[in-house]
Write a structure and sequence with these properties.
Number of helices: 3
CATH class of the largest domain: Alpha Beta
Number of strands: 8
Shape: globular
Order of helices and strands: EHEEEEHEEEH
Distance between the termini: 35 Å
CATH architecture of the largest domain: 2-Layer Sandwich
Radius of gyration: 16 Å
Strand content: 25-35%
CATH topology of the largest domain: Signal recognition particle alu RNA binding heterodimer, srp9/1
Strand order of the largest sheet: 1-4-3-2
Low-confidence stretches: none
Mean pLDDT: 93
Largest sheet: 4 strands, mixed
């Protein structure tokens, strides 16, 4: 099984550029109606869909129902966490939770670094290092 999240956004092309910068991924489709974002090896990590495009399935979401993604976190584990932190610094998004260790101290939990931000549309995005990496970084 492999997750293939899809979010609905007002501007697919702008969101695509933002996520490509944030995650170091690339476009695999492009266009104003729909986008597929993939890792350098071609693994699908996120789909973007325009609100006003129904394709063959009808509308996906109501653009007036805000905040977008209420209660959903778009969570990305990345190997290059510090490079993603540099991208976050350049993008200057709203920071929900700045870089922190999970758990804050002690043993257990994922033992990784996280940073929680909001994308330009209001979706909460979490960038996290691999499990176990925080303890290795502290040594």
């Amino acid at each position: 099984m492999r997750p293939q999240p899809l979010i609905v956004v007002p501007d697919v092309e702008a969101s695509s550029r933002w996520y490509q910068k944030l995650l170091g991924c690339r476009s695999d489709h492009g266009g104003s109606a729909y986008e597929r974002l993939v890792t350098p090896d071609g693994t699908l990590i996120l789909q973007l869909h325009a609100f006003d495009v129904e394709h063959d399935h009808g509308p996906i979401a109501d653009p007036n129902d805000r905040p977008y993604g209420n209660g959903v976190l778009l969570w990305f584990e990345v190997e290059d966490f510090e490079a993603r932190m540099a991208a976050i610094a350049e993008l200057q998004p709203e920071i929900v939770l700045p870089k922190h260790r999970n758990p804050p101290s002690g043993e257990g939990g994922p033992d990784h670094w996280e940073c929680w931000i909001r994308d330009p549309n209001g979706y909460v995005v979490v960038v996290a290092s691999p499990d176990g990496s925080a303890s290795r970084d502290l040594q």
